[in-house]
Amino acid sequence: MTLILQDTRQDRLACNRGFSAEGIAVLAPNQTASLCLNKAGEVKYNVRMESMLPGGEEPAKGQIEVK
């Protein structure tokens, strides 16, 4: 699975484990990644998961809202 953060600036991150400087985490089964957001706002992300569908990937979108 690949988790891709969109428009996440480094100054919004208080901690980071498993994400590249570009905001990408590639995870194998049972692996985790984490980050700490220190400013209010929205963080949108895309997840690409392996799938039996044609093309081999199933994309999903989401967002995290920090208040």
Give a quick set of tags describing it:
four-stranded antiparallel beta sheet, 67 residues, mainly beta, globular, two-stranded antiparallel sheet, 0% helix
Write the layout of secondary structure elements.
Layout (H helix, E strand, L loop, with lengths): L1 E5 L6 E5 L6 E3 L7 E4 L3 E10 L6 E10 L1
Antiparallel strand pairs: 1-3, 1-5, 2-4, 5-6
Biggest β-sheet: strands ordered side by side in the sheet = 3-1-5-6
Query: Main sheet, how many strands, which sense, barrel?
Result: 4 strands, antiparallel
Supply the helix-strand structural class.
Answer: mainly beta
Strand content: over 45%
| Integer average pLDDT | 88
The sequence of SSEs as H and E is EEEEEE
- Count the helices. How many? 0
Radius of gyration: 13 Å
How widely separated are the two ends?
28 Å
Number of strands: 6
Give the proportion of residues in helices. Answer: under 10%
Shape: globular
Low-confidence sequence ranges = none
Summed up, what is this model?
With 67 residues, the chain is mainly β. It has strands at residues 2-6, 13-17, 24-26, 34-37, 41-50, 57-66.
Q: What would you note in describing this structure?
A:
It contains no helices and six strands. The chain has strands at 2-6, 13-17, 24-26, 34-37, 41-50, 57-66. The radius of gyration is 13 Å and the shape is globular.
